[in-house]
Amino acid sequence: MISFRFHLVSLTAVFLALALGIVLGATVVNQATVKLLDDRIATVRKEAADARGALSLWSKFGDDAETALVTGRLEGVRVLTVAPETLSSDITDKMHAVLAAAGAIDAGTVRIDNAWSDESPTTLADIGESLGIVGPTSLDTAIAAAAARLAQDFLVGGGPTLPALAAKNLVHLDSGDGASAPGEDARILVLEDGPPSGLLEPLVRALGASMPARVLVADGGPDEEIGVSLVGVLRETPDNARLSTVDHIRSTQGRVAAVLALRDFDRLVIGDYGSGPGADRAAPAAGG
Predict the structure, then answer these.
(1) What is the 3-state secondary structure of the chain?
(2) What is the pTM of this model?
């Protein structure tokens, strides 16, 4: 007669065999899965290495071809550079080198002091004294007045406002080729790398309104900050400023696009160039 113990032993044997089969089967499946994943990882790594190699090749090509792409594009054109004091000299130095290769005349560099973002009474007093403002005023009002006067001076090729602000160390001047003023036909290149503050945005808007198709704003900040940079703000709300913008000015593509945009002012053409938010196209059309 078959006892309960026999049934228990039999059932235990069945479950042990089932468990053993699952373990062995899972081992086979896992090995196949692991091999599949290993193969896929190896493929992705190779594709990434190939992409890095291609990117490096094109970057080197761009660096080597940069001078050839811009040579003669701005022959005899005066370019005044405006930048915040905090902007890396690496950006301005490389841009000036490219402008020189394009044949542009360096009309000087204006660096805007950080004091414009300082709401101290001393800063306000210095601005007011530089502009001849009599009586109490707010910092915003003083900044707007300074922007309007500088734009008017730049429009006619020079004036008293810039030297007066420089005397108070509110701006710092590099005379470039020795000219005391940019000249009435000069193009204005504004370099920046972050959210607008102080004098920069009001000045750019005043310049863009009074000097249409003569002002280029170029951003040198990281990709994730382009949308909140001065370039991003101007693209979102240009108001009545008729100017051009370029992003990624740290790159060969950005610097070449900047030169072509400055050249296109000859045809009164403006646009937003690059690959950041609000860009119309990568670079101006290769004409003219």
Answers:
(1) CCCHHHHHHHHHHHHHHHHHHHHHHHHHHHHHHHHHHHHHHHHHHHHHHHHHHHHHHHHHHHHHHHHHHHCCCCCCCEEEEEEECCCCHHHHHHHHHHHHHCCCEEEEEEEECHHHHCCCHHHHHHHHHHHCCCCCCCHHHHHHHHHHHHHHHHHCCCCCHHHHHHHCCCEEEECCCCCCCCCCCCEEEEEECCCCCCCHHHHHHHHHHHCCCCEEEEECCCHHHHHHCHHHHHHHCCCCCCCEEECCCCCHHHHHHHHHHHHHHHHCCCCEECCCCCCCECCCCCCC
(2) 0.78
